[in-house]
Structures are given as C-alpha cells and as structure tokens.
Amino acid sequence: MLRAAGNHLILLCGVAFMILPILLIFASSTHETGLLVTTGLQLFPGSETIENYTKVLTLEAGFTDQITALDMMKNSLIIAIGVAGLTTLISLLGAYGLVYFQLPAAGILFWLTLTTLLLPLESRFITTFLVTDAMGLINTHLGMVLPTLAVALGTLFFRQLFLSFPNEYLEAAKLDGAGPVRFFVDFILPLSWKRGGAIFVVTFMIGWNQYLWPLMISTDESRYTLVRGIRLIGQESGPGMALIVLSILPPLILVLIFQRWFFQALADEKNAF
Fold this sequence. Notes:
- The chain is an all-alpha fold.
- It has 13 helices and no strands.
- Helix 8 (152-163) packs antiparallel against helix 10 and helix 10 (180-208) packs antiparallel against helix 13 (238-272).
- The longest helix has 35 residues, at 238-272.
C-alpha cells in the first residue's frame, strides 16, 4: 500500500509540475497588462478575461494592421496539417518500400534516412533558404511546409511496425493475386492507422510550434503564424497571455481526440523493440 501511494504521489507531483505553467498562463491572461509587468505571472484568475480575449479575437496586428488572430491561427493550421499529413504519408510509403520491396541497399538507405535526425532544420537554414528561394516558394505555405518534412522518426516507427507483421500476410496477398498497391491498401493501411494517428499528432505539434523557419521564410504579414503573433502583442501583456492560451488549444484538442491511438501506438512500439 505504501509503495502504491508513493508511486501515485510521484505521478501527481509530475502532473502538477507540467500543468502549473499552463495554469499560470491562463490565470495571467485574465489580468491587466500593468499588473503583469509589475508583479509577473499570476496564480489566481482576475477580472479582465472578457476584455483580453475580446482584444485578441479582434486583433489587427503587423506594421500595416492587416493580420488578425484568426488569420494567424488559419496559417498555423495550414502549416501544421500540411506537415503532419505529408510527413505521415511519406513515412508510411518510405517504410513500406524499405520493408516489402527487398531493395539491395535497403539497410543503407534506412540508416541514411535516420541520419536526418542529426541535422535539424535549424542547422541547414541557409542552404534550405537558398533552395526554397530558387523554387519560388518564399512567402508561401508550401515553402514553410516542405523543408520540415524530413522527419525520419515516422519512417522508423512504421518500419518497426511492418517488421512485426507475420510473413503470412504477404504470402496470403500473393496467393490472392494482390499486387503491391492492393496489398498496401487492403492490408497495410488498416493495420497502420493507429500508428499513423500517433505520428500525425507528433508531427502536427512540430509543425504548429514552428517559429524560426516561418520567421525566416516569410516577410508578408498575411503569412504570420500564431506563434509569431505572440511577439506582436507582447508576451508580458494580458492579451499576449490570452493569445498563448489560444495557441495551446488546437494541439490539446488533437491530443485528446487521438489519445487512445497515441498511447496504444507507443505501447506497441515498446513491445516491438
């Protein structure tokens, strides 16, 4: 009993440690800016909730006041969904080719793919910017999405999943006369949607939280993202805190929707290793 109580106490302390910053931001978003500047973050809610959130929703920011909070949220959603969807699809197809097409250099190709984990986007900003500029993708959503797709983690997870499938699946498909496309659609996709959902959640948050690359690639105010918009309002202001709260909501809602798939996929990955 004492051991179980101690374990639960440790878990509760960990949860409180992770949730406390969010509670501080939410409570601070209900106070006026002057109080936050003089005393810092607040632990208890204030009386400026309606005023701060109304100001955020009716915000017109930028040098020419042409970007609103809703526009920034739309840009962030486009980038996050684009990064998540394309990364999941590319990872799925890449792992499928590496496992089932029996390429002579499949092992080498796989390890070369994993080396991209050693080169984050920030380490190749200059060359990536030059390539993006040469392709005419400056100030475009596509230019913000494409360079962030080199995420080898999804390929690794799908590959481990496919290697855990019995060979009888492939043999049954061949006996049924199924080709690579039909085998992929009828066998692989139904068995991979939970893992795909987990990868989609992770890469969605990666795309949603992008700051440096959209800042570098876009000079057009109409392409500002929500994370970038926090700087326009001011992080120490009440409306700025309200905008931070709004920026947390979409990833939080996504995690709540896909939490069963996410945690089950992680458990399956642990068993696969």
